[in-house]
Queue: 4 jobs
Job 1
Amino acid sequence: MLFAVGDYVAGMLIGIATTLAVRIVVWPGMDMVIAMLLGMAIGMILHFILGLALAPLLGMFETMLPGSLIGMYGGMLFGMRDSMAAGSSTLLAASVVGAIFGAVIVAGVKVYGRVVRGAVLETGR
Amino acid sequence: METPDRKTRRKWDEASRTLDFFTFAEDRRLGPHKRRLFEKIRGATLLVAAGTGNDFKFLPPNLNIAAIDISPKMLERAAKKAAAYTGKIDLQEMDVCDLQFPDAAFDTVVTVCTFCSVPKPIVGLRELHRVLKPDGQLLMFEHVRSAIGPLGILMDLMTPIAARFGPALNRDTVGNVEKAGFHLYRVENVYLDVVKAIEARKENDV
């Protein structure tokens, strides 16, 4: 139970960190392609750092795999949004969206994990 | 230029200092799955890549096991945990690609997060095939490349960085087991389709 809560907190943290870092680097009017590439790079670096920091508490796989999705794809989405100045005008609003994005990805990974868990080949010895 | 085995040894010597710290939670989350796989161990057993001995606590009691690792620093740490095990664990420094055991020496070979790091995985798996008796079993707890599109791409992208300090993230270990001549009879997804319990057999007629 504690691990499950921790997974969501970690995902939200990575989402918030990514959204804030992208907000600092990407400005309204920036070329969207550049903004998305920058966002992706920022998200990947941040997920790697935060994932390593959280891995001893939550497990390497359980932090790194959802974290990589949040960092990479979240970074791209946040970069696209900020280059267009499309919504979340305050840092607080952007952080809330980042946290929601992180939590949704963690939930999605958990649901998918349940779907694919178990034997995928079983022929007997 | 440094040979792949020396490079691997140096990498894991360095990693031995922090491995227990980084795997603290992983042991608690994945430990029960390892214990369930290890319950299938029978007969003369080889444990490949013993590491710091973190997995010894998941072994059934009172076994007599040969355990190898390429890193002497890992083995130094593993020695304390081996001493606490209720059976006997004989630790030896050895490269899985060049095993110093005779043919058909073991009934069971166990690997845990090993073939993400072996530079030549098929060579290593063929060595395991050689030292297994006919009908011997290979029990593996490994992480592999995800077949889930976006995740698989990410694992490919992260592997060049991750492999500098630890494992490659995009190995096709299930495919490699078959390429090495084993007969796969059970593959279980433990975490997503990334962490897997793999069971294979050396065919009698091979």
Note: The interface with chain A takes residues 21-26, 28-30, 137, 143, 146, 148, 150-151, 154-155, 157-158, 161, 184-195, 201 of chain B (CB under 8 Å).
Job 2
Amino acid sequence: MTAGLNLFEQQARNRRLTVAWMVLFILFFAWLGFGGDLALYLAAAARTEGQVPYRFPWIGAVVTLIAAITAWVSWRKGPQQVLWSTGAREVTTPQSFEEKQFVDVVEEMAVATGLPKPKVYVIDDPDPNAFATGRDPPSACIAATTGLLAILNREELQAVVAHEMGHVRNFDVRLMTLIAALVGVIVVLSNGMGRMLRGGGGRGVGGLLGGRERKASGPLLIAAAVVFVLWVITLILAPFISRIMAMAVSRDREYLADATGAELTRNPAALVSALQKIETHEAPTTHIKEGAAHLCIADPLGRDVNTREGRLADLLATHPPMAMRITRLKGMAYQQLKAAGPAPTA
Amino acid sequence: MGTILFLVVVVVLILWVVGAYNGLVALKNQTVNAWKQIDVQLKRRHDLIPNLVNTVKGSMNFEKDTLDAVVSARSRAMQSGAGGGMNVKETAAAEGALTGALGKLFVVMERYPDLKSSQNVRDLQEELSSTENKIAFARQFYNDTATNYNTKQQQFPTNLVAGLARAEIAELWEIEDKAERAVPTVDLSLQKPQG
């Protein structure tokens, strides 16, 4: 179905999907933060009449503050850390013909987007891969492995760089950094709360909810208990749920970057053949760690889930299945041919 | 009550006019800037050509016609761009001719294997084809930006303030050369390429 859309329709669709996922993500996060406050508020309301003593949502405020700080720090420091951890070296004066071509292609794509030229990095790794990082377009960096430069021809390299430029133009680094920070906070929160409930904290919460006070009124207390139980259950499942949502956003951004790349080069077929070459060479890219996986052209960890199609693969992969990406790109190429009129001999 | 409502409507209208006006001005400047980006790349190409001609002249003495065509197309293209203004049609025609002449030169160069294998020529050719690509991408970016600008000033209700913002339809860079216009063949078969 989606393969029948041209590249602009695909971009619009992916943007809408990202917005929907982000709204869900924020709602989920808000529930994790303020759900506990709601339970405590209801419990407090059940025990007292008139003014409720629980006025400030402490849990939600603290959690939001921690998330904001984490996101800010990783947004400021993340890009340099990613480059450093992969052992990438900046190319200022190209040492070989391949590097020269790589720098040229990056310049071409910068012209095509009308953005400043990103810094160019090379990673000495025989496995073909590439990624983009940076806080915003002016501080963007594009890195490729020597393996990628070796196996792709000029057009294919251009297609891959266009995909990475797509990540830069769509502000994917910012989006994914924010999401990674949220997921991190959720995991820490879940672990911390779990420990607290198992330990002495459970008694304190039980005391709050338990109807030991004289004026405990029934329905409100039941509501408080229900909210509390639901909140604890979601907290326990939260790391898993938030990862699934993060991966869904990541896959959307991959499709979007594919479509943006096709818009820049007007040559979806080149990305198809580049992806096919990368796929046949697929092996773990040892130099790229998990932190940068979602910005690569192909999953550097080479996990099985990315190559299979199916329910589990759909949920846990950073990248959509290669076959799906190729199908959609071919759909774009077909739409382009159709728009251009009957092909001479094809 | 009535006056308040009237005032609210007036304020909203004024805000909208300011927003639409500023939007059009921003788009206009973006279009001019996109055109300047093409200019930068065209200049780069003009600077590279004497270099290329000098390098290949020795080994391609008998292809004098092809080389002369490139040189004269270059000087004509430089003349048309000398005005500095946005003369889209004229520049497009002159630069299209230069692209054609360069393309012919590259085809001829294919016949000289030792010329092609020389490191110097290989670097120059990469430099030139990269510049050709940059021109094409800058042109694509200009056309996209200009189309965006044109659409905005024609669409209702922005077209109401188009006169106020002195918006004019920006000319697109059309491809004159027939060879350039030819549709590239795209392989949609499911075969994997030999890598």
Note: Residues 2-57 of chain B form the longest helix (56 residues).
Job 3
Amino acid sequence: MKVNVLAFGIAKDIFGGSTIALDLPGNKTSDLKAILEHQFPRLKLLRSYMIAVNNEYALDGHLISETDEIAIIPPVSGG
Amino acid sequence: MNTQIKISEKPLCIQSCIDWVMTPQSGGIDVFIGTVRDATKGKNVLRLEFEAYEPMAVKEMEKIAAQAFEKWPVQKLLIHHRTGTLEVGEVPVVIAVSCAHRDAAFEACRFVIDTLKQTVPIWKKEVFEDGATWVAAHP
């Protein structure tokens, strides 16, 4: 399925833009992480990162559908 | 409403934050004001650039506020956070908490800022004379 992933902070620099379109083979957050890390190996150098689905942090087994709002959340540093 | 959460590009007004949490039943107000520091690890910081994933950041701040109300007898709680470019001495975040007694106000305020720094999707980039880095991005 095709998904769009929003990027913030350093993830935006890594993707070279604030959103990227991906062909996702699979339907879990872990599938998305695998393909993102394959296409953007610099993600593996981060301290950590999370995936958010519909504005909530999602665990690796979370199921994704095409209409979800998906974002990559690199380590936060507000305040 | 006893909670006010805001993300804004405009400068924050500390006095109006304090005024908003004040109630006749309050015995104390605890306020945390984050400010832009001029150096990190001995390197001069010129400015900070803040970015937020706004809808999710608001949701996460609402969760933190709800937890604070569960844990302490909080009367009113306010979280304001700025985005955009901030110069040294400017204020990126204000947290204000009113309670009947000071212990709860201190503890709740500290909980809110500590948790915000861990969970709320907001990012800051430190701009130095010779480049810029996203804070906390790398180990």
Note: Chain A touches chain B at residues 6, 8-10, 13, 45-47, 52, 55-56, 71, 73-79 (CB under 8 Å).
Job 4
Amino acid sequence: MSERIFDQLTNAVLRGIQGVGERLRPGWTTRNKAQTDEWRLMMYAYNRSLPGMIGFFLALGFIMAGLLGPFMAPYKYNEFLIVQNPDYQLKPPGAYGFAMGTDFWGRDLVSILLQGARVSLIISIITILWGVPIGIILGLVSGYKGGKIDELIMRVTDVFIAFPTLVLAIAFAIVLPPRIVDLLVASPHLRTLMVWLFAIEYRDALQLSGILSVIIAMIIVWWPTYTRIVRGSVLSARENLFVEAARALGVSTWRILLKHILPNIIGPILVLATLDFGSVMITEAALSFLGLGAQDPIPEWGAIIYIGSQWFPASWWLILFPGLCVFTAALSWNLIGDTLRDVLDPKTRRSIEFKVKEKAPIKEEKRAEVPVKVSVKVPVKASEESSEGTVSEDAPKSS
Amino acid sequence: MSTSMKRFLIRRVTTFAPTVFGVIFLAFIIAYVLPADPARAWGGGEKASPVTIERIKQQYHLNDPWYLQFIYLIHGVFTNSITDPISGNPIFDDLFRAFPVTVQLTIFGMFFTLLIGIPLGILAALKRDTKLDTAVRIMALTGVATPVFWLAYIFIYVFFVMLGWITVLGVPSPSRIITYIPILDALLLGEFNIIGDMIKRYSLPGFILGFLNGGILARIVRNSFLDAIQSDFIDYAKARGLHKTWIWKHALKNAFVPVITVIGLAVGGLLTGAVLTETVFGLPGIGRYSVRSIFGFDFPAIVCVTLLFGLVYVTVNFVVDIIYAVIDPRIRY
């Protein structure tokens, strides 16, 4: 039942993508039909995975908390209520109407957790958006070019992998802040951007140096895994006939790498990147637990656990709740990644579809109905709706 | 076999040597090049007096060009003449005092990892696509998603504060050092009360490490076991009517080839990566030593610790490669 709702949402999203494609380049829909049909099958399979859906909604909740949290919080992250009433210090959940208690400076734990969600969100997004592409590009070059370049890149990668992730990140995160402070002082634009990204007050801008160092440290630590994996898959992918054909046609190296090889190896990398969202959050929480990263008054989940650990075991709520936040957020990305692994792998995806067919054979008809209903609402896009009808019939057939 | 093995060993060593050199070089860059003013940082940051800074510059050759500094550093590493600015001891002396604690923690961690991972993995493979299989899958995901330090505090709260089953203070050690592995020494000397203390002290951190790594190991055991049991040679063995124990033996032997890699990597990870566990439980091992030296801006110590980490990693990989070549005759180098 609920699957049908998600399938409709899926169709709507895909129609949106097709609409944009059509607007940019006329004829996009028909040319990329095979591709979009494949996407539709993947998303249908994803909709049928309970862990995947749980992970999706948890992650959605985390992202919403990160985006809106700082503005919805009952207090500001730098509102030290201890100034109003010294009694507000380290109060357990429920006391004085603080739902989750207060920290050492009388800050409301709910508010700083919401602000911490923003900090975690931005850190993990920036780290993945930089670390993964760097790793992919180096891996592509290394695997495709071979020879001396390959040897050089792989030796450097080995050196980075030889270090324990956390120790290397700590080392970078501790030597970088003075240089980052110089950078922040010199560039008001960077300051404004960062203040806006992390939703903090302008006067706290220089306290961001720790967080920025952690981001840089984690990018430095994160790329080598991807380089290694991408290189391995490029080595086998470049032997394909279509690569040889492209080379014979005189297609440029970069075009071969990005258009012919990368789409064939992107599946496992996408899965790993999703899983790594969780790992980045845990590593970053660990770094700030050790006292790196977020500097007061900017809250961060790991840093709150550190504050709690100083009055442990009396201040259990300062450890339990932030830890649960890290755990839930990391778990959500892991659930998504684990489901994506099944969905992106054609072998296991077919098995998911088989199950759908066995359990509810009536679904085929129901699914075929969906586009008809839509076509009544949106009569303009008649061309796509016909393609959709065939897809939903194709879905069970291909399985 | 033996000549190809020899060639393989030589090739491995030649690729590992640049890695170790690179590790030292990277550590050197972190400690000497990246800090804006290393001498000031080592001397304690802003409050360092000019005299101290001058003395540190003299002692660690910071006025020389960078390549000379690097040569001095390598020379110091090999002669163990670099002293820790805080404790005043040669650094490798301090490191060898800390290493047994980490080895002990690794032993306990691996014990629990294997205890949880291998039986669960085999069970999950046998009862494939059942609730048990799903439970193992969720356990693996949970293990990856749990922050170690958080779980450590919760377990300390339950088992130390509430139940009082374990201790989190002191480091029980045997009266004499024989093998540098405390629990083995205590066993050899017959000091059973110390062994009891050790179990009380190390089993909780060990269990936490085992709990977090066990799920992943179980998943890998499950997958490789399924791969092995579905392969053609098992079908062939069954078709020939071989006894069940024989089939099991062949399946297990093949299934454990990938598992050994993972176990090797886990050992390497525990030997170098238990930084957080050691910090929370107050165990004076390598991880805590490295964190302490990093936070004390104790850069010569950082270089030496990272060198040790690099060596451990390289050695573990080397050993895994050799085990691989020995148990799997299909692998030729």
Note: Chain A has 17 helices and no strands.
